[in-house]
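2 proteins. here.
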Amino acid sequence: MKDWDVTALREWHKSNSSPAKSTLSPKPKKHPCDYETFANQLLKQSRLLSQLIASSWLDGDKAKQIREIFNKATGHDDSELRQLLTGKKPNLWEHCIFDDEEIDLYEFKISWNSFEGKLSENAQVLKEQKPPYFTITLPYPPRPALGDFTVTYEQIEEWATSTIEEENGVIKNPFPSYPYIPCSSC
């Protein structure tokens, strides 16, 4: 999201409703991680965050280490979480959810009792605004009780390890098939 800031995002949204007033092209810039559009980027990021949380619900040392990173981020030290989200901890999570420049635009909070994520703007009264421009509240609910009426361990594992499918640059499967796995962003 190198070329996106709060002003550019507002202009882009204006251009979709009234193109004559915008100075930006209605097509958003291509994302450095090869995401085609801003909306598609958000869908991919939401899916990857959901998969990351689902992978932390699995058994094993890897899942335990991911849970510990989320715990540390709650105490305001989110440096390891930022490394995890940028793919700099490939032994735990190899996907780039946010690139190095983009991650600086966000502040991260963890909500332990929610199944819904939230993206909110950090309002600033300054002429020269400074990052973070947005706060992402990541839902991190406890793993649901495993069972036929909720979700099975195999279903969590399937979601955590499944690949993203795209058609014509648009993500086809952004949401989990099982309602007890959170859609982990806005």
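next one coming up
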Amino acid sequence: MAEQVNDQAFLEYVVKTIVAHPGDVSTERIVDERGVLLTLNINPEDMGYVIGRRGQTAQAIRTLLKIVGAKNNARVNLKINEPEGSRRGPAERGSIDTSSVDDLKI
């Protein structure tokens, strides 16, 4: 059981170290037939830290989660909740392409 929640603990650890409000970080973990879905909730002021320029930080976190998932034979996906009051504009709210690591085999 401890191996299965490593992905959630890893996500919380990484995000809490890069945000200004680590106490506001929370995650939800749902397992279904498509794999593991981790939903990340953060303070609206921290969105920029987690997303990064052009989504690079979020992409890096997703890549690391896919590696952690592959180690445990699970497909791990990350959803970042858009909090009320987020400073990102409408043009920046598109989805991030993770196709380069979707079928990562380790």
